[in-house]
Amino acid sequence: xxxxxxxxxxxxxxxxxxxxxxxxxxxxxxxxxxxxxxxxxxxxxxxxxxxxxxxxxxxxxxxxxxxxxxxxxxxxxxxxxxxxxxxxxxxxxxxxxxxxxxxxxxxxxxxxxxxxxxxxxxxxxxxxxxxxxxxxxxxxxxxxxxxxxxxxxxxxxxxxxxxxxxxxxxxxxxxxxxxxxxxxxxxxxxxxxxxxxxxxxxxxxxxxxxxxxxxxxxxxxxxxxxxxxxxxxxx
Amino acid sequence: xxxxxxxxxxxxxxxxxxxxxxxxxxxxxxxxxxxxxxxxxxxxxxxxxxxxxxxxxxxxxxxxxxxxxxxxxxxxxxxxxxxxxxxxxxxxxxxxxxxxxxxxxxxxxxxxxxxxxxxxxxxxxxxxxxxxxxxxxxxxxxxxxxxxxxxxxxxxxxxxxxx
Lengths: 235, 163
Known about the structure:
A: elongated; B: alpha/beta; four-stranded parallel β-sheet
């Protein structure tokens, strides 16, 4: 990765490069509060102030190609300190969204593609999903205080519908039971949908608004299909 | 967030509840009872970015007081991490950082957070976020810390249930 250059040729400035008034990046007065608040200032020679300046100067290719917007966790510490309230973390997400999808780092976009095609980030088939839930539920039912426990998959007219984070039906099935124990003790009338149950939307991370929209569409569809009264926001 | 942005009509058809508000409701209505002697160790609480600054920015409300109300009902001895609330440091696992493959950077970020955790002398870090749980649990393993454990807020509630 090339270091951002300290000098910029005037020919490289592009006033039409980043017309995004929502982010207010042109209000930046270069005070540097953001850079001192940021936990990853200095990594790859970047910091939030530099990013905002580069966006302001229309240096789109440089910021979109940089690793830094993906090392930033969009924690929002920079913008919480910004006296001009520039939405820096949203700007980072916008920068991420402008990368070719096949150049999104790691497995993020693969997960988004899987979710678009199958309804969950793991491509886990419906039968396997239900089998895992029932298997873990059987074990819980053997614990004192939880005898007779069952997972109410696709129960209609429930008070509460919950989604499931994919890792809980992947490598961390032992963490499925915590909410179940609470629902059991509270005698909650709840359900979990057998399809489109994914509670973790990686489009949030990759700047993929279409994916975010479709995933939330599907949750709303499950709510309607099962006539559930309330949705537990995915954790 | 997707629902809020694009499905205002859906939100007229059904209600929504956050994990914090649901747990508080169960406790206040007496539907669950918690045993505060369940965890005889010092705990600390980590504010996830998404329930604090980001929630404030997107929805106009940061969830700082709600988890602390629950913490008070779970632990005799729990201490604030410094900094906390809107000045909190990210765990380093947010924004997809657990999945980008930039491991060296993620671990460096996490070590910075762990300094803040270790300064509390807590044996238990309580989190209400899957990414934070993954990152902090990974840091504990990475640093070989034997006397420190990360636990979901709702896991602590489940384990403290009086049945």
